[in-house]
Write a structure and sequence with these properties.
The chain is 34% helix and 19% strand. By secondary structure, it is an alpha/beta fold. The chain has an eight-stranded mixed β-sheet with strand order 1-2-5-6-7-8-10-12.
């Protein structure tokens, strides 16, 4: 296995179908990813998406026992010996940081989502990781009202898990431009509340330049207005920039913002909404 790097989140690092390690800026170390969309199908098509060959669609049926066996085997390997030291150059990131439902598409689109969460928690219990290693769902929130999603969230919450919920822009036009989906802020808030009723929720926001310019003042004000309405039921915001080249056909003109620009925007969000902001350029 080649060294893990923030600039490379390929899903085949371990040669497995569902389980893959990546080095995560936001998690602060090695994230053990659970990819329920190995067919690279997603119901959104974000312009900054870094999945090569992404297509619109649903995941194939999940082989739950194979996933559990892969996770068990990888944890045996990663928790023994000097795995972090051998695979991570940056000393401060040489630790397992979380187990995260993420991958090549929206995890909650999987029909087996609730059953998968249950099996992942069971494997974590085998390794005495509940309360020691965070369990996270990284989601666009589109399936928040679905019964199976809520069942999975309840299991995740009982295991001390949390949700990272995508909110990239605060108005319908901005959401469509960035996420290629038709949503209004009220729908985003409703789905966010549904998640927050069950598990702790962080917003996660990708902020980037387009044709060399950061989002304009109107885009910022729309975003601030949405976060102000959500401030009472989110834990905070993970604000991050582009770390890997986007693969979307709509990515022309996108670029990373200077770290100081992103940091200043994070400070403004915190000052005007009272919400904690963690910035990862």
């Amino acid at each position: 296995m080649k060294p893990l790097a923030i600039t490379d989140h390929s899903r085949n690092q371990a040669g497995l179908t569902y389980v893959y390690p990546v080095l995560s800026r936001r998690a602060g170390g090695i994230s053990v990813g659970i990819n329920l969309n190995p067919n690279r199908a997603c119901n959104w098509s974000c312009v900054y998406c870094q999945v090569e060959g992404l297509r619109r669609g649903k995941p194939d049926p999940v082989q739950i026992e194979l996933l559990a066996d892969e996770l068990r085997g990888f944890l045996l390997y990663a928790l023994s010996g000097d795995y972090p030291a051998r695979h991570v150059k940056e000393a401060k990131l040489r630790q397992l940081a979380d187990i995260a439902f993420s991958g090549d598409g929206e995890p909650t689109c999987a029909a087996e989502f609730a059953e998968v969460v249950e099996r992942v928690v069971a494997v974590m219990q085998e390794f005495d990781l509940i309360g020691r290693l965070p369990l996270r769902l990284i989601t666009n929130g589109s399936m928040a009202g679905r019964k199976k999603t809520r069942e999975g969230l309840a299991t995740l919450a009982l295991a001390g898990g949390e949700v990272w919920f995508k909110i990239d822009r605060g108005d319908a036009a901005g959401i469509f431009a960035v996420n290629q989906t038709r949503l209004v802020p009220e729908t985003v808030l409703r789905r966010l509340k549904l998640c927050a009723e069950i598990a702790p929720v962080w917003a996660q926001t990708c902020w980037f330049a387009h044709n060399g310019k950061e989002p304009d003042r109107a885009a910022k004000e729309h975003y601030l207005a949405l976060i102000q309405r959500a401030a009472g039921f989110i834990q905070g915001i993970h604000l991050y920039g582009l770390a890997r080249p986007p693969q979307s056909p709509h990515a022309a003109g996108l670029s990373r913002l200077p770290p100081e620009t992103l940091a200043a925007w994070g400070e403004e969000i915190a000052a005007k909404t009272g919400v904690k902001v963690i910035c990862s350029p």
